[in-house]
Structure formats: structure tokens, C-alpha cells
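Data availability (excerpt). The following record was deposited with the supplementary files.
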Amino acid sequence: MNLVKILDEQTISQPDRIALRDCRGNIDRALTYRSLQKLTETAADKLLDSGIRKNDRVLLAVSMSIETYVLLLALLRIGAVVVIVDPSGGIKALRRSLRLVQPDAMISTVALQLLGGVLKEVRNIRVKLLADHIVSPIGRANVYSTASGSIGLPQGIEDVSADHPALITFTSGSTGNPKAIVRTHGFLLNQQRVLASSLPGSKSDVELTTLPVFVLSALAQGITSVLPDCDMRKPAAIDAQKIVRQMRVCGVNRVIASPAFLQSVVDYLSDSHLHIHGLTHILTGGGPVFPSLLKQMEEAFPNAVLTAVYGSTEAEPIAHVSSTEMTQKDLQRTFEGNGLLAGKPIKEIELAIANPTELTALSNGATRKFNKLPAYVTGEIVVRGKHVVKTYLNGVGDEETKISTAKRKDSSKIWHRTGDAGYLDSEGRLWLMGRCAVKISDERGELYPFQVEVAASEIPSVRRATCLKFGGKRILVIEKKHHSILDQLKELLLRTAGLKDTIGDAFSWLRFDEIRCVDSIPVDARHNSKIQYGRLQQRLQNALTY
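Predicted structure:
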């Protein structure tokens, strides 16, 4: 078997359909499935001629473009293992990742090649290639091109086993050092089937997506993928005008993107008094999807079905919910501090809520079982299934997140600890409460800062809000959009929660001691949504107290 075979099947069934489309230097570019196959075959031959072989780990260090996917598919075609490092982590994360993976080869730009003279981890890589030497830059002349020659069964594809490594990526490291995730050919095929089943698309779709795993799934389904014209390392700082233009020029009807990316787009549309009527489906995940964003998207994309997807790097997807499924009662629960609705778990995954203490005892070998918590009791979310990563590279990190309920080695009995807190309601729907690691426990009870983040997300003048324990007190921390925040905070909370005439009464469930406003609440670079509480603690030293 080989993952590329299912992609090449689309070349036989619809050779002249556009597979990939992007924009480089204000030039719209596209490749048909036939052109993509031919370029991939040519690139695979060049890789072999350059000394890259089956089983080699190859660092692919280039920005996402049509050429990147040609390289990725070519590497998979010859049985090499593609290694992708998140650039938002910086040089320190890059060095740590390279030490862990120890690549045999690197395909990159000239800039990263020059790091070879500075970083020992780069100097030690055996084969170093420039991306442009393997795949020549594709210009306007290649738009809608069809390669000549007859179409036959895929040729030159290395046969591999289902458990042969295909792709190595890294977790964001939000709770510690990043861990290397190995996805095999069999795993990626299972994940593709799950995505196609739970979040189905149509061959007539033209899909703009910011997530590589969804691009691979789209290629396997024969869908056209449009790569956004932006730097995805900074999703909150994209040029939304370019993205809107791209959607219209390319005839995009389906979007899969992060909340930060979509927030930038809807802000631009709102400021410009524009709407996009051609979108029929929008899926968003990779960070919390607040009701306020869904409401904005309903206005910006009036004909689109909106779906919030919950998952993690190790398990994508886990659950999803459409905006039409969220009732006013659900929203009221959110505004009263009861978390964020994520929807019912997909049928292909097994999900349970457990006491974190029991899970830690299980991972230490003290026990072989855990008790599933009943409805409305908050605990840690654990999952297992064919598209859930069972182990990390070399087992580094397994002790933190992988637990087994089997007496003997049995991968089907391995659960993944998401690190997220949540609960199931009486309908079997999952509600998210935030990260387990930042839970506040004091004489007033237990509190997850995420409860505050979601409850305050509807306030027009608030960009972000959270709560943390500081100096022995519960501090409500607010990053404002503009002035007069307290009046607007009070007004909206009174309207949505039906509480009394003070902020303290409106947030009675929080039982906070002080409100502090800061210029910005620090978040991670990758998702632009995960609050960095260590840095926030430092900023509170100079914050304004009300």
C-alpha cells in the first residue's frame, strides 16, 4: 500500500479537474490532478537521483504552496518520511525538534540552508537540497495546464506497509516540550476516511483550507483545494482583503480554517460592509470557537452552514457542532460560566470523562482501569480510536498522555489524555471547560479560566478576558478593544445573564476579587488563542486595578 495511490486514483477518474490552486506574487496558479501527478512523478525521480531513499527522514522546511504539496507527495511516493517543524516555535524549538528526529535529509530555501553554518543540528543532516531544484517554481503558464500523454495506473510508487511512517509533525508544546507525532500511511488513510465520513465534502466543492491534513483529505476525495494567500504563521495578522479576493476569483464555496484566521476575515467584511453569499460550508477549529464569532460569521456568510470542530493534534476530529444546533438555552449556559458546547463525539471515536487523579494512577501502573464520570461532572477528556495517535516518536512523551487499560500490549486499549477538561450533558454532548493544568482550586471551589474566556466573549469592547489566581486573589483580567469597558461589560452581562446591576453580581459564579485591565493578554503564536498564563502573571505587575 501507499497513501499516494488513493490520490492518484483521482487522476484517472477526473484528470482535468483542478487539484491545487494558490497565489504567489499576485499570480493565480493552479494544477490539475493530471499535472499534479506528472510533477510528483518527476520530483520523485529527482529525489532518488539526489540520494534520498525509502525510510529516510526528510525535513521539509518551506512555506505552504503548490510546490510544497508536490514535494510532500513525491516524498511519500518513494517511501520517505516527511518531517514538518512548526516555524512559529522559533530557533529553539527547531533545534530541539531536529535533535529528536535527526533527519537524514533536508529540503528547504536558501535562507535555511545558510543556517547550516550556525546550527550543528542542520550541519549534521546528510543531504541538503533546495526546493526549487526539485520542483521548479510554477508560473502562470501552468494554470489549468494538462500534461500530455495517456493516463494509466500509478507508476513508480514504493509499496509500504500500513504501519510505515509517512509524516512526522510536532505538538505545540503548550504544556511542556513539543512531542513528535508519527503518522503512518495506514493512520492517514484512516483519518481521511473519518474526515470524509464525519465532515463530508463534495467533488464539486472548491475548498479554501489552512490545514495540511485537510488538504490531503480533499485530494483523496477529488476536491479542489485553494491555499490561502497569506503567512499562516501569523493567522491573526493576515491581509483579509487578499483572502476575500481569492475566495471570489477561485469560486470558493467551502472554507476550513482556524478561528483566528476567520476572525480577521469577518472583521474586514464588517468594516467594509461586505458579505460573501457564495460560501455554503465553513468549518473552523484548532482553537476555541466562541458564539460571538459564529454570530459574526452568520452575518458575513449568510448562506453558509457553520460548524465548530473540536480536536487535537493527536486526535482530529473528536466532536463538532453546527451553529444551528446551539439553542438559546445552550448560549445561556455558556454566558453563566458553564463552558463551551463542542457537540456530540463523532461515531468513529470513543470518548470518556475521567478523574485526572485516576488517570495519573493508571499511567503509573497503580491500576488498570478508570471510572467514567457521570453527566455534568467535569473531568479530563480522554479518547481512543483508529485515528487517535497511539504513541510519540521513540515513546518520548507517552508517559504524559498515553494510558492503557490492557494487561498485555494492545494498541486498541490505549487512551489519549487530551489535557482538556470537560463534561457530557444528558444528551451526550461534550462541553469544554479549558485546560486541566490551569484549574483554580481554593476555598471557593474549582474554577477553569476558560469559563471566563467564553462567558465574556460576547462583550463588544472586550478582545479577551480570563481569570487567574494572583497574590492570593481571583483576578478577572480583561484586554479591551477600546475605552468605556466597564459600562459595556456591565450592560451586556446584565442583558445576557439576567443578573443584577453590578459587575460583581453579573459574575457572581466567578466570585472574583478584582478586575484588572491589560493592554494585551499574551497568546501562542501558532493558534493565536491559547493564553500564556506565565507571561500574563508577569504583566499583572504593571496592570491597572479597578
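Summary of structural features: The two ends are 63 Å apart (CA to CA).
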